[in-house]
Write a structure and sequence with these properties.
The complex is a heterodimer of chains A (289) and B (164). Helices cover 44% and strands 3% of the residues of chain A. By secondary structure, chain A is mainly alpha-helical. Classes of the chains: A mainly alpha (289), B mainly alpha (164). The interface between A and B is medium-sized, with 31 and 29 residues.
């Protein structure tokens, strides 16, 4: 009788512990997924990897990006194991996002902004992968890019990277505040603001001496304004409150409401930022280096 | 000859100044929208009016100017007036310079009209909320109006001038 009671107690104790561990693991998983979801919004993944003509196939790629180099088609980043990234390890995902290299070692075209994403930490990307793995898998093959010669020669990309890609995580400026550095990280890293708001050379590399000074004609054909307060007298008129509110709502200092691709950035990214991150980006843009 | 024309011709100073005055006034209106005329100018003028109202309210909402609920009501009414029937100012294919309208408007006409109606609805709600003088509620609804503007600008406008 007593042995039976002890057995029951032991089994019960074991179940409680297994349950606790499982619960702790799932809480931890949930936390990683939530962090990953925030980075997903910050990095604007949804804006590019969902074809607006097929909104039900979320993250299954297919968005057409028309550029002077030809047409790029975004890939499937759902967890489908055959057509998406469901079969990728965390390390393969980190390599793709930070180094611009596929699991097969193929170089990505810089239409995928790994040139900015390289600044993101490995752990943040592991969280992002966790979030992506939690999304519905969509079976949809990637479409081949339609690029003109010589831009379709992928073997030239190591040369391009050698000239225009500086790999490495974000390094905070030790003389600046934590808030300023957070803003700097967002603008130059996951937010990849520099990719649109900076001029490019004929080979598509960023003019690193003129970061954030605008682009008279972006690869998508838009006129992108300068957001460098120290170099642009017009943007220098924007105060911290103006910048922060514009990020939140798209309303400019003159009362206009942003359109074009920036409207989608407001919808999908900047309006989703935490109040602290809005403060940080505004702080940085008011006083960039 | 009428009294006015008689006076006009008899006074050489008036005869020379008035055409100059009207000429300058007309050219100022034209240059404000880079040479827009006709229906293009009408809709661009209306958009400009809406922009000015949005700026006035924005400065209040973010604390750059004193918060005045009555002024919010006034500006909301101005937007309602400017946006009323705005889609009528977009006849088929009116994309010639200096228009910033994209051809997608006419390819997705029903959606364009729906978004315009959405702006009307959100601005009407702003007017209603402004009457309550609740600063937080007004800010929330102002942001909804901005969202309605943005929805249209996202896919149907290509800005030609930076920094506006």
């Amino acid at each position: 009788m007593i042995c039976k009671l002890i057995r029951y107690l032991a089994v019960g104790f074991l179940c409680i512990n297994i349950g606790s561990v499982a619960s702790a693991n799932s809480n931890s998983d949930l936390e990683h997924i939530e962090k990953g979801e925030y980075l997903f919004k910050l990095a604007g993944c949804g804006s590019c990897h969902t074809d607006p003509d097929q909104p039900d196939n979320s993250l299954a790629g297919g968005l057409k990006m028309e550029t002077p180099f030809g047409n790029f088609f975004t890939p499937n980043i759902t967890p489908d194991k055959e057509t998406g990234i469901g079969g990728w390890t965390d390390q393969q995902f980190i390599q793709a996002v930070k180094q611009g290299l596929s699991p097969e070692g193929e170089h990505y075209f810089p239409a995928f902004p790994y040139t900015s994403y390289t600044k993101i930490s490995d752990q943040e990307l592991i969280d992002l992968k966790a979030y992506l793995d939690s999304q519905p898998a969509v079976r949809k093959k990637n479409r081949e890019h339609e690029l003109s010669f010589p831009f379709n020669q992928r073997w030239l990309l190591p040369l391009w990277k050698g000239m225009f890609f500086e790999e490495g995580e974000f390094k905070p400026n030790p003389i600046k505040s934590e808030t300023w550095n957070r803003g700097s990280y967002i603008v130059s890293g996951p937010g990849h603001c520099v990719e649109c708001h900076s001029p490019r050379n004929i080979l598509g590399g960023l003019d690193t001496d003129k970061l954030l000074t605008g682009n008279p004609k972006s690869p998508e054909g838009e006129k992108i304004p300068s957001i460098h307060a120290a170099r642009d007298p017009e943007f220098d008129q924007w105060e911290w409150e103006d910048i922060r509110f514009a990020l939140e709502t798209g309303v400019t200092i003159k009362g206009d409401v942003m359109g074009g691709s920036m409207a989608h950035v407001i919808d999908n990214t900047t309006s989703q930022l935490s109040p602290e991150d809005l403060d940080a980006v505004a702080e940085y843009l008011v006083h960039p280096l | 000859m009428s009294f006015f024309s008689h006076k006009f011709i008899k006074n050489p100073l008036l005869f020379s100044i008035l055409p100059l005055f009207f000429g300058l006034t007309i050219s100022a209106q034209l240059s404000a929208h880079s040479g827009a005329t006709g229906v293009l100018k009408e809709r661009m003028d209306r958009m400009q009016e809406m922009q000015e109202s949005m700026k006035t309210m924005k400065d209040m909402v973010i604390g750059k100017s004193p918060f005045l609920p009555d002024e919010i009501e006034k500006q909301a009414r101005l937007i309602i007036k400017a946006s009323a029937g705005i889609t009528d100012k977009f006849p088929q294919g009116s994309t010639h310079s200096p228009s910033e309208a994209l051809p997608a408007i006419w390819q997705q006409w029903d959606r364009f009209v729906s978004l315009s109606n959405s702006l009307d609805a959100q601005t009407a709600k702003l007017l209603s909320v402004a009457a309550g003088a609740d600063q937080r509620a007004i800010k929330i609804q102002y942001i909804m109006v901005a969202k309605a503007c943005r929805a249209c600008h996202a896919d149907y406008r290509q800005k030609k001038e930076q920094g506006s």
